[in-house]
Design goal:
The chain is an alpha+beta fold. It contains seven helices and 16 strands. Strands 3, 4, 5, 6, 7 and 8 form a six-stranded mixed sheet that branches. Strands 9-14-10 form a three-stranded antiparallel sheet. Strands 11-12-13 form a three-stranded antiparallel sheet. It is elongated.
């Protein structure tokens, strides 16, 4: 005889999955004409929708298994506000991922992979992937620092403690790009300030701080510039851009996930077996 225990969560926080829809058929050149007039692309996507960006492709494709019915569709990279931003994962000042005459397409399904993006000629014709606008909401696991500082000052703190606890406090760390994607794109978190400093991949080395991956082979931000989270770029809440390290900005701090938590909201009913 043994006892099986099952944890039943009595407090459920609903996750709001953003709706994705495909509209029209057009070249990217035609789409850019619409984005030049309205960076969200609402004229193409309709009320309550905007042209999906790369981070939304990651969330909807990888996490929610959205495959666009097996087709592919135009998206923007970071946001629709400029040609560089449309061709880049970050804001595009220092590096772009698609060449000048190419633009990003979301491949809905590639074997077992979802959320794949490829650069295609702007002259090609495809549908446009549109994502629903989601209202902002506060997220308890992310916060800005009270004061503002230059990235040079932040670097000094990170050189002493790569978590940045001297800036963020105990049980907190400086947010990285992946966390900006989760909290900004997936949970629609927005700060009052337009820009807040983050690190790219990992904060232990200077070039890691300027890159999505570890930075040995390539960095996204040029020397002297560092990633800042732009949480209120129209309907896009996880945009990252490279900013001059001499500017004063608050720092985005994320809660350490491995801290002890209370389980008082869980009930453990027992069921006798045998």
């Amino acid at each position: 005889m043994f006892v099986l225990r099952r944890a039943v969560c009595t407090q459920v926080v609903p996750y709001r999955k953003g709706t994705v829809q495909l509209v029209g058929e057009m070249s990217y050149t035609a789409l850019e004409g619409q984005l030049d007039a309205d960076a969200s692309g609402a004229a193409v996507c309709g009320s309550g929708f905007h042209v999906c960006n790369y981070q939304e492709v990651t969330v909807n494709g990888v996490i929610h298994n959205e495959d666009l019915g097996g087709t592919r569709a135009w998206i923007v990279g970071a946001h629709g506000g400029s040609d560089q931003a449309r061709r880049a994962l970050w804001d595009g000042q220092d590096s772009t991922q698609c060449q000048q005459y190419n633009a990003p397409q979301w491949y809905g399904r590639w074997g077992p992979y979802r959320g794949r993006v490829s650069c295609a000629s702007k002259d090609g014709v495809a549908q446009v992937a549109c994502c629903s606008n989601q209202p902002d909401r506060e997220e308890a696991a992310v916060k800005p620092t009270v004061g503002a500082l230059t990235y040079w000052s932040l670097q000094t703190e990170l050189d002493q403690d790569w978590r940045g606890r001297g800036v963020c406090g105990a049980d907190w760390h400086v947010c990285n790009y992946a966390e900006a994607t989760v909290y900004g794109t997936m949970k629609s978190h927005a700060f009052q300030r337009h820009l807040v400093w983050i690190v790219g991949q990992f904060p232990n080395l200077e070039y890691h701080r300027r890159s999505i991956w570890n930075g040995q082979d390539s960095t996204f931000c040029a020397e002297g510039t560092y990633p800042a989270w732009v949480s209120n770029q129209g309907p896009y809440h996880g945009v990252v851009r490279c900013e001059n390290g001499a500017t004063n900005q608050p720092v985005a701090c994320c809660k350490d996930r491995m801290q002890p938590v209370s389980y008082t909201h869980l009930t453990l009913p027992t069921k006798r077996i045998g």
